[in-house]
Amino acid sequence: MSELNAVTPAWVRVRLRTAPGAAAALALLVALTACLAAAFPRALDRYENAGLVRAIDRATPPRTTFTMYAPLPDSGAPDREREQALLPPAMGRQQAELLDALPRPLVADPGQSSYGVMNTTDLAVPERWIPRPSGLPAKVRLVASSGLAEHSSVREGRLPRTTGRVTASALDAEAAVSEATAKSMHIKVGSVIHVPAMSGPPLAVRVTGILTPREPDGAYWSTAPLLRTPALVEVLSDSPEPPKYWLGALLLPSEAAPALTGTAGTPVRYWQVAPDPRSLYAHDLESLKSAVASVKSGPGLVRVRAATDPVTQVSNGLDDVLLSYSRLSSGITPLVAVAAFGSATVAAVVLLMAGGLAADRRRLELTLLRARGASLPGLAGRLLAETAVVAVPAGALGLGAALLAVPEGRPGHAVLAAAVVTVVACAALPVRAVIAHRAVRVHGPREDTVSVRPSQRRTVAELTLLVIAAAAVEALRRYGVAGSAQDAGASDGSGGQLVSLAPVLVGVIAALLLVRLYPWPLRWLTRPAGRLRGVVGHLSLARAGRTSVPAVLPLLALLTALTTAAFGGSVLAGVAGARDQAALLAVGADARVEGTEPLPDGLSDRVRRTPGVRTLTEVSMDYQAKTDTNARISVAGVDPAAYASLAGRTGLGAFPEERLRRPAAGSGGALPALASPSVAEKYGNRPFPLELGDGTEVSIRIAVVRDRTPAVIGTSFLVVDRARLSREKARTSMLLLTGDHLEAGALRRAAGTDATVTTRAVERTQYVDSPLQSGAERVYTVAVAAGAGYAVLALLLALLRAAPERAALLARLRTMGLTRAQGRRLLVLESLPQALLAAAGGALTGWATVLLLSPGIDLTAVALPSSAMSDGASKLRTDPLSLALPAAAVLLLTIGIAVGQAWWTGRRGSVRELRAGDAR
Fold first, then answer.
1. Which H, E and C letters describe 334-402, residue by residue?
2. Rounded CA gap, 434 and 445, in Å?
3. Burial 774-784 (b: 16+ CB within 10 A, else e)
4. Using CA atoms, how far apart are residues 334 and 496, in angstroms rounded to an integer?
5. Which of 129, 235, 348, 622, by CA, is between 20 and 30 Å from 574?
């Protein structure tokens, strides 16, 4: 007895040698599933981190760099002590303390961080050789910054330096300027610029070198862009052309900082701490927000002031960048989680089915072991050992492949995902065997679909799942995917995960409901089929009714995969549709050719002959028109018939062309116009005068109001019949094109240099603003494809499970005269009820899921950057192809497998099946 309950290595070796094919198939399944499960979180981490780095890089250093300002040391201190506080030893020590004081997970980039002394008041200089565009003297800003030699190369001259002690009463100093500053302000090596002092003679600054920044876009040069690029500053004025003056920076050596205290520029000390974007991770986003807030107005600021000065102020805009990225991420991550949960569910079902298939194939063996005295723990231990020997190395192999394929990302989540897959694979067979062999018996009861009644426990479990699914759907509809966890009060994020599970839960409920409803049509069809001539119809329905109850697993896998595919296809189609619509709003048609002046004669004909152009609509644009209140308004002069046709085709403010037809000659009536809502609200239906850009005046009466129109991008526009405009204003300045596969290069060649060309296709490619968006699309696509693959595998496992019994049945029926054609029809008709159930149920469930969840899902974050034009929220809509194609694939695959099995069985012959007998 103890020998049967002991788990021995010999048993494991015998089992592996007995069924090497099954062991290899299990190893392949576990390795593939573990690889996909481990790669998913690392791929998500990679895209999220890349998106965060992109967001910080695009924010530019003036917003992301921590800049600390402090006044000069106390004026009551001795002069030498004040001077020492401004020199590199003291300032450098404070900079090192600041770098250490930066709270984690913020990580500083020491190479781009700097410190020094700079003027906060720009000082006018008397040198007349510096350009004066409006007659105003140029101004300069003195900056004594650290690291000048490390961050620049000398283009001409040499770096500035100091000799001896520098004090506030210094009369001269050396400085360098950037290449751009020297070019714009006509500064040369040896030039002397006199900077006003608080009292006494000015500070004579001699330029000793012209520098080229080594990393002009880095934080050192870009936190204060004036260091590398001068500015042409406009003075506030009521004049149409306000006066301007040049402003540039003179770069002194850091040892010359005390000289700034004698100028009238109100110098201050500063420390710039640049964060390292490559050391910031998206999973630390909340901690990053807290760290930034701490440095700006919390414990971090206390440490900053302890290291520098009690009144130090911190300037930084990184919190706004992180908040913007957080909004983007919160709109994308839950959608990706929907696909992840769907694929994970299907993969788990396939692993359970694999264990169930192994348990069914070994039913007689396990029954014999139990009859000979094997205990349930001993039996489970044997099965667990022989499964673990295969699954654990396969899971480790899959994990290793995932780590190599996706080298970035947190390893802990990948290890956990692979471990879960391995545990499920190891436990599937023992658990299934223990449940099936709780009692020692030779023959178990029949579990036909049409005869078995659900137990009370199953009913309670299904009702519980129904309540959970309803709660998840309601939460998603009410709060949306991004706000569910927060608005529902789920502090640990479980609420958001439950909402992401909503499509899966809908699929599970649908599968359980269909399993309950499945016996009814079979019972209704069995009696009419029995009265038909021939045995195939009646026998196929009887065989379908004898399907074992555990067929709920393949149905669950198929419905979940079909629901996820329908939901995912609708998401991807919605993203594509939102980008197409945004590109259409930005361009107005499939392509736009526009010039700042009227287009040359003949250009319209050349563009019309370009391959792919279907229609061409000419427009006369006037952006300088003014109303009686001097308000600027964009006016488009069009041919009503052609323009109405274009608006109807594009869906941008369609209108009847007769509403824009000019009144009869000599009637003196106002010119009818199509107006935007803002213009219509201001003027109503009354005629009002409009002064065009050439000085002519027309009377306008608003006849049509539309939110948008193809020719004008904006909210203040008028569209009129250009036949009533002056000859000059009626000249064509814009072409709106429609057609298939319009090439921007061909259009540019046709338009020449007289116009700019914008195509809808090119505009659309610019809407993937962040790696997080593109990465989410790829992950979503892969997840849906993986779910579909596992669904196919589930279907194959389900059919493989019944293959021996079907082969034996065909063998017996052939001895009774069943032809091969009838055998094929029998297997096809036997498989069709469940296939039809899965296909129709999957399509219906996918449609219902999209319909139920669409109010809470906005695809704008995934589809468009924040700067793109949109006509509102991009809601989820049903994609017919995503519903029809997977369902049709299930039917075709089922029929193909049934036909293939019938063909293979007929080719092999029936001697083996007849000798083996019916194993039930």
1. HHHHHHHHHHHHHHHHHHHHHHHHHHHHCHHHHHHHHHCCCCHHHHHHHHHHHHHHHHHHHHHHHHHHH
2. 16
3. ebbbebbebbb
4. 7
5. 348
Q: Residue 248 and residue 231: Cα distance in Å, rounded?
A: 7
CA 579 – CA 590 distance, rounded (Å): 13
Joined tokens for residue 173? 């100093």
CB atoms within 10 A of CB 453: 6
User: Which residues neighbour 534 within 8 Å (Cβ) at sequence distance 6 or greater?
Assistant: none
Task: State which H helix or E strand residue 842 sits in.
Answer: helix 820-853
The CA distance from 291 to 102, in Å, is 8
pLDDT for 49-86, tens place per residue? 888 888 888 888 888 899 999 998 877 778 788 888 88
C-alpha angle with apex 676: 671 to 680, nearest 5 degrees? Answer: 65
Inform me whether the pLDDT recorded for 415 exceeds 60.
yes
d(CA 711, CA 618): 10
Q: Which helix (H) or strand (E) holds 698?
A: strand 697-705
Q: Which amino acid is at 296?
A: K
Cα separation, 353 vs 799, in Å, equals: 11
Inter-CA distances, 257 with 12, 427, 693, Å: 80, 72, 55
Q: Given the structure tokens 């608080």, which residue do they identify? A: 198
Cβ pair 501, 341 in contact under 8 A: yes
- For the residues 529-543, what does the mean pLDDT come to? 61
Residue 736 to residues 4, 306, 604, 708, Cα–Cα distance (Å): 83, 63, 10, 15
Q: How many residues does the chain have?
A: 920
The full DSSP string for 242-306 is: --EEEEEEEEEEGGGGGGGGGBSS-EEEEEEE-B-GGG--GGGHHHHHHHHHHHHHSHHHHHHHH
Phi, psi of 247 (to 5 degrees): -130, 125
Look up the pTM and report it. Answer: 0.76
Which residues does 789 contact at the CB level (< 8 Å), separation at least 6?
none
Identify any residues that bridge with 738 across adjacent strands, giving them in sequence order: 615
The burial of 647, by beta-carbon neighbours within 10 Å (0-12 exposed, 13-18 middle, 19 or more buried), is given as buried
CA atoms within 13 A on the CB side of 829: 19
Distance in angstroms (rounded) separating the CA atoms of residues 119 and 475: 56
CA–chain centroid gap for 508, Å, is: 27
- Tell me the HSE value of 476 on the side-chain side, using a 13 A CA sphere: 31
pLDDT at 796: 78
In which region does residue 234 sit, left (phi positive, over 0), alpha (psi from -120 to 50) or beta (all else)? beta
Structure-block tokens of residue 619: 């427009």
- Cβ-contact 402, 39 below 8 angstroms: yes
Give the orientation angle of helix 880-908 with respect to helix 820-853, to 10 degrees.
160
Packing angle of the helix pair 552-587, 502-517 (nearest 10 deg): 140
Alpha carbon 741 to its chain's center: 27
Question: Helix, strand or coil for residue 311?
Answer: coil
Q: Which amino acid is at 377?
A: P
Instruction: Give residue-wise pLDDT tens across range 627-673.
Output: 777 778 888 888 888 888 888 888 888 888 888 876 544 445 688 88
C-alpha triplet 423, 429, 434: angle, nearest 5°? 115
Whether the CA torsion 159, 162, 166, 171 is positive or negative: it is: negative
* CA–CA dist 827, 814 (Å, integer): 13
| DSSP for residue 868 | S
Alpha carbon dihedral 779, 781, 783, 785, in 10-degree steps, equals -150
Average pLDDT taken over every residue of the chain: 80
Contacts of 78 (CB under 8 A, 6+ apart): none
CA–CA separation, 510 and 506 (whole Å): 6
Q: Which residues, 6 or more positions from 816, have their beta carbon under 8 angstroms from its beta carbon?
A: none
Token readout for 354 is 């694999």
Dihedrals φ, ψ of 557, to 5°? Answer: -65, -45
Handedness of CA 565, 570, 571, 572 (dihedral sign): positive
